[in-house]
Amino acid sequence: MAPTTQSVISTLELNLPKPRSWMEQSEPAVTKTPSEWFAVKFPGQALKYGCPFLELRETSGDGFSNVTPISINLDFFAGMLGGDIRLGHSIIYFEPEMQFYYRESMLQLYKPTSPEKLQNYYRAMLLRCAQELGGETDKLNLFLEFRSDKIAKQITNGFKSILAADSSFFSASSPHERIRGVELAERLMRVLCETMLERKEGACLTVTQAYGAFCRLAQQRNLGQLKRSMFRAVMQDLVRDFHGLALRRDVFNVFGKQREAWKGVKLIEAETLAV
User: Fold this and answer.
1) Which end of the chain is flanked by fewer CB atoms within 10 Å, N or C?
2) Is residue 175 within 8 Å of 187, Cβ to Cβ?
3) Shared-domain flag, residues 97 and 12
């Protein structure tokens, strides 16, 4: 008797998790394909960038089904590297320095990281997906093709445009802080202007006095040194903004030497302030 050949039906699918009722929210989501697995883990990215994979489902005549991810959505995985905002995770690409930064949750500061570390994280997530899914999923592409250096580099390169941050991200007025950023000096100067300078008729504050106070504060915070010329350039704008005073060059000391100073403002002793 000749063997029978069962027909196989092949369909291309863009699989996303089905909406769940409020009663189902307390139960872990059941995922059957790689796309569903990643979309449950990163719902915001799936909503913004679309389905993680194009998947091929092959169903035999006896009802058995097999799912193979055959094409990857690079934008989704580039967005995935940005972190899970629900957990306070954040990774950005800071364009002015061409540098990746991740947010350290304990210190709540951004620290530099490398594209290689991001690629390792991406590979680890694919492997975790392959391990947790059942036997209906063909895992070869998850384990081999999509974890290749070529794909991983494409994703981190895509990250640069999708989650790029401009100079305002770490500006002195931004809520975002990083380790030893140049903007920390300006933030400290703002503290000095707001809390350590006081308007007073007849008072005089020289650039030398203000720079000395700034250096003491910077040393307390281990910020390193800032050139006097850079301090002066930023400080004169801040004093004008906060106190409405321009830097003058017609102030003379007791020896008749001309100095740069602000008239009408004095320095409050740093020891008396919790700055």
Assistant:
1) N
2) no
3) yes
What is the side-by-side strand order in the sheet with 8-13? Answer: 8-13, 53-60, 65-72
Query: Structurally, how many domains does the chain consist of?
Result: 2
Is residue 133, in this structure, part of any structural domain at all?
Answer: yes
Strand order in the sheet with 164-165: 109-113, 99-104, 91-94, 164-165
CA 265 distance to own-chain centroid = 39
> What count of other Cβ atoms lies within 10 Å of the Cβ of residue 213?
18
* Amino acid at site 232: R
- Per-residue pLDDT tens over the stretch 12-29: 989 888 876 555 555 667
Taking only the tens place, the pLDDT of each residue in 44-69 is 999 999 999 999 998 887 778 889 99
pLDDT band at 216 (very low <50, low <70, confident <90, very high): confident
User: In terms of domains, do 54 and 156 share one?
Assistant: yes
* Domain-terminating residue out of 142, 170, 198: 170
CB neighbourhood size of 159 (10 A): 25
CA 52 to chain centre: 22
**Taken in order 45, 131, 158, 50, is the CA torsion positive or negative?**
negative
pTM of the model: 0.69
What local confidence, expressed as pLDDT, does residue 27 receive? 64
